[in-house]
Structures are given as structure tokens and as C-alpha cells.
Amino acid sequence: MSKGKLEKFAEMETFSNVFQYPYSVIDNKPFTMRGQWRNDYFHNDNPIVLELGCGKGEYTVELAKLYPNTNFIGVDIKGARMWKGAKMALEKGLKNVAFLRTNIEIIDRFFAPNEVQGLWLTFSDPQMKNVHKRLTSTFFLERYRRFLQNNGVVHLKTDSNFLFTYTQHVVAVNKLNLLFSTDDLYHTSGIDEETATILAIQTYYESMWIARGLNIRYMKFALPHEGTLVEPDVEIPLDEYRSYHRNKRSSLDARK
Questions:
Q1: Confidence of residue 206 (pLDDT cuts 50, 70, 90)
Q2: Active site annotation includes 40
């Protein structure tokens, strides 16, 4: 690990808005705030929204600035990246922001049933070769159900046609309530002002994708508690710019 990363990790240990519970420590370091985020950290009764795979945390911070009456928690395993957003939130005095450094596979260990009202997935790795690692797969949707309120809203913002198309199929085959969808966010007319304001927040990676001429895709859907979730049995073209020497098509494993 580079000296810069070591310094950031050391500084993160002093941040009051960061909680670090990766796989390597969770079994030996009990997390006592599950179900108590509002009482023990935020000290209010406002809704809680997570950004999963928050990277540098800039989307989490910008959402918190836009909505001071909502609590936002950025989640990622990459602490050196998260350091930037956590430090920014502290410097700006944002009391409605926290960061959780952990593996998203165990995200349900940190939140109690109905404790969370919404999720943001911003520029997640499409994981074209492993369905179980896609953050919109049924593997993860089942975990989100364990702490998300009934019909809580899941937002997906991505440059990946593969992940966007895959998620469309997941929504369709499971008859989830699709609230909005566009495959070209910044060239879509008729978006209401509030939504346009939120979606105009650009992450570090989004700026890179836009500079490369890639379309930004966005959808949001409601995730109900009831019903059995199934994987779509479809083939989806791979993202060519991500898959240089791979086959052009992939067969999705329908296993749960």
C-alpha cells in the first residue's frame, strides 16, 4: 500500500463520520448501531438513503447538501477513495452525512428492517462476467429488502449499457414498478426540475465517461417486500469499451 493511502487510512480512523467494518473485522468488532442510526448518529427522525459503491463520496456529499432533511450514508470498501468525501463532509460541517467502509455483500448486517428509505447505485461496476456481483442482481436485491422499507426506491445511474439493459430485464421479469427510465439522461426532455437537479450531480467517473462521449443512463424503480425474485434468462451485448478481448455476448446464469 502506498504512503499516501496509508496516511489516508490513518486519518480516516480519526473521522467522526466514518465507520469501518470490512469482512476482516466485522465478526470480532460488533456493530451496535444497527437499527439505531437515527438515534445514535444522526440524532433526528429523518429518512435514510444509502449510496452503495460511493467511490470518492462526492455524490453522497452533494445529495446531503441538496437535502439537509435527509440522512445520507455512502458505502464502499475502498477507504482511500472514501477519504475524500468524508473529509469534505466534515469540512463543510454536514451533519446528515456518514460513510460506512464495508463489503456490500454484508450490507444487511448494518441496517435493521425498514430502517432505510432509498438507495443510489452510481456508476457501479457492471460485473459482466459474474451475475452475483452486480448490484442490481436478485442476489443483492434480496439483501436490500432486509432493511429497505416496502417499495423503497432504487436509483441506478450508469454509463454501462450492459448493466442498464440487464437491470431493465430484472425489473420487467419481476414486474417491479419502474418509475422512470432513460438511456440518454442529458438529452432527455420533460424531466421535472427536482429530478433534473439531482441528476445533474456528476461524480468523478461520470465526468470521465461524458468526456469520452458516452451516454449516461438512469432509472429508478420501487422494490417491494413481497414476491420471489428471479434472474432474467437473457443474453445481453457486452460493453465493447470494457471488454476488449472478450466475447461480444454473455449468457446470464439464472442461479440465485
A1: confident
A2: no
